[in-house]
Write a structure and sequence with these properties.
The complex is a heterodimer. Chain A is mainly β. Chain A has nine helices and 30 strands. The chains are: A mainly beta, B alpha+beta. Chains A and B meet through helix 4, strand 16, helix 7 and strand 29 of A and strand 14, helix 5, strand 15, helix 10 and strand 28 of B.
Amino acid sequence: MKVFFVSLLMAGTALCQDPAPATAAPEAAAPSTADIYRSVVRIEVATQVPNYAAPWNAGRFSGGIGTGFLIGPNKFLTNAHVVSNGQRFLINIYGSPEKHRAKVEHIAHDCDLAILSVDDFAPFEKLPVFSISQAVPQLESQVRVIGYPIGGERLSVTRGVVSRIDFQPYSHSRADSHLIVQIDAAINPGNSGGPVLQDNKVVGVAFQGLTEADNTGYIIPTPVVNRFLKDVEDGRYDEYTDLGLAEFPLINPAMREALKLPNNGSGVLVTNVTPTGSCDGQVKPGDVLVAIDDHAIDANGSILIEGEKVNMHEIVERKFAGDQVKLRVIRGGKSEELTVTLKTLPQSRMYAIKYEEKPRYVMLAGLVFQPLDTNLFATASFRDVTVRRLYSDYVSKGLFQEFEDIVILTDMLSDELNTSLPRYTGRVVKSINGTKVSSLAQAESLLYPKTPPEHFVIELMGVERPLVLPAAKIPAANDRVRESYNIPRLSNLKAR
Amino acid sequence: MKFLPLLPLLWLVSCEKPAPAPAATVPAVPTPATPEVSQAEPAPAAPAHLSVVRVNSTLQNWSITQPWEKNPPRQRRSLGAIVGDHQVITTAEMVADATLVEFEATDGTRRARAEVLSVDYEANLALLQLADAEEKTKFFAGMKPLEIAANPPLRDTLEIIQVEDNGQSLITSGQLLSADVRATFLPGQLFLTFRVKASMQSSASSFSLPVFNDGKLAGVLSSYDSKDQISDVIATPLIARFLMESRKEKYQGFPNLGVSISATEDVHFRSYLKLPDDQGGLYVSKVRKGSAADLAKIVPGDVMLSIDGKPVDRRGYYQDETYGSLPWVQLVRGNKSAGDVIRLTLWREGKATDVDVTLTRQEESTRLVPNYQFGKAPNFLIKGGMMFQELTRPLLEAYGDEWESRAPLNFLDALSNPEAYQADHDRMICLTGVIPTQATLGYEGLRNLMIKKVNGKPVRNMKELISAFQAMPISSDSHSIEFIDEDLVIYLNDEMSKMIDESLLQRGLQQLSRAE
């Protein structure tokens, strides 16, 4: 099943609409339906998408259309993927030809939400503000989706019912799963970031759909939206935290018996604890997790919240870094109570697509070195087993403690100095002149030392023959490569 | 509807085509420079058909995904050359996983069951003989074994022998264009192969055909590309050596050195190695543990300058007296037997050193992950619905054409880095799948895991796995299974798994384990 984004990718075409006469917004009570439309804005974004295959290039200029809505004074909520890699943001009020310059205040790629503000809020001041519900919409209850999807220039409204509430992947980052609500109203490209309403209150944000199924639209439900709004209250988005555990269900009776657990369908077995993660040092592999914040965990890893069976991680989903979570584990036949302080693990973003970043790289005589991340992994389908293993074990085995970056020889741009080298692209750099490589910045300092050695000897993992380049000939080769491949800089060590 | 008028036309075209064939005197592709090339003509009373027999094989391999059963059988036919004391040489492909091999006289008058005397899957050659030796005089009456030709020089003319359904032999002449080492059957197994240009017709037999030079056996054709009219022919020296090896008491096969090498064309690399410019040389990048090179104390970083006095150039070629530039492997694999000694001149620590290496052969079965297992049923164990198999290349290939990227990473790691596992394992035992049963409740999602221990016992191979399951501690009523790289122990109830095993047998599984 393929998940698609619902922001509309296209060159911004000018909207030719008659300006609607401004009406005074009623102060009290829920705004009327017609008024509400005015607070659903069309967002036009010009983007610049970096090119990881040629990291020295500016990237591709493109753009897209999405939807946003007013949730407070100069606060427009939309999806992160609508504004990702954006360079210019314009906001349109429904029915008005005027485009208002905006900027991103907060962006949360892990839950696909963002807040924009406009340079001049005056034209928006009289517009009604959406209030966000606290509850998750009930199954079978009706919802309305408002936005600017394909098929026309003007605002569109669709209706549907809530068909499913689940814990599902958010496709924007490719690495995160949160609570999701599936509805059967049509959600199409351009709907992204639009409000989903019930009784004129926001119960979700439209954000993705399925290509292989009909009538499946996905919305970001209120618990996720409210968590995001709370997180940014201090002016900064801190990302989700995670227990950093892998669990195995304890369904098999023989397994339960061997672990001396009663056959009551409770508890999951911990099989991996992420080194330096929230639970490191407290929870151990082999522990049986039986409760989280006093919610009993069943053998499948589910808990009961507000009458709904949800994944046990839902407890942590609603918390923030620095918050505590109580875990009850059975260890060696004894029940123990643990209090874990949650923290974010920036290295776990290894598996998330990065946005708003300039690809990092270092070049030497046409050899291109890049740090491994998911953007690069998606661009350069690596076949080498070592690269793929280091990538998949990076977080779970705590390899980040050893490697700040996994530096890869990604390309060899032909130059007379390197044409007789074997093409060992797509391999991990093990060492440079005998020094183990553990970050791109360190690799750069090894490749450009104050006093160069006679030869640069670059060893790659899984390749027994080193790459050797004479140091004296490198400056001339660098000049040739910069000239012929039109490369402005030989390195970029800063992603932002 | 629109297609209809086209049909009679097509039919006409296809009708016209065979017309010139009966004449058979016109060369299919006239080549002015070499007029004798590609000429198909009915053989005169030449003795070609008296020195060949048809080989009819029934091949049937084992299912990889359900190792207790066999895949549907296939039939293959080839033409074998009679050599020596009425033995028949053909390609190894013809007998790989064969359940029945038969000889058939080209005139169709007699058939008899054959057996394999020796087979080399790497060199793609097999030597067969009649199963019933007493039948020999009768079956081969009037037939004449072939001599092995002297190595034909490049540009010499070779004759490819085919036999039509009516028993008439068909000889196609072609020029020997080039000789190089190529893989004709298994990937990566490089042996001396001729390229011959000849325009052949497809005939009753497949393209496993004898190739003659001057009335003597000069090679075995293994494949034919009808588009380019180029065929690959297993070369004369290899045939001669295979026959020589086959006559030894025990067939040993072709030896290897056990090194990975890298070219030294790169001038900067040469200057780093301080290699003299008047030399060639091949950089030894890896030495397999226990290999001939390892026993001769060759180490990574050594540079091979010459083999048996023949200089090896920067790209690994030497000058062969007959065939010109050939890759160095020919000096080891093609020209030598296991036990032979070769002298290597190595560049080591800035000077040339001579090292004598006694060549050995690594038996495929001693590999951690064997590349092939022809004629051998795959080992497996079904226990309570859990399926354990040995990691082999055929198992990996079952992940599809893209197996090198689609197969599980831990399996691929064992294939490419066997050294990391060999201390504790002869074979990697894998949990490849779980048949949903009452005993495997909750384990349905487990697969692609490699086994470390069962009931606390380390598992080196399938036999040890089976005996580890038989050695459940008396104090316990379930088996424990531990995996490599996972902090997970799972348990399987003994009584229930026995019940499940019983019911699986009743459901038609031929057997629940094999460890041979």
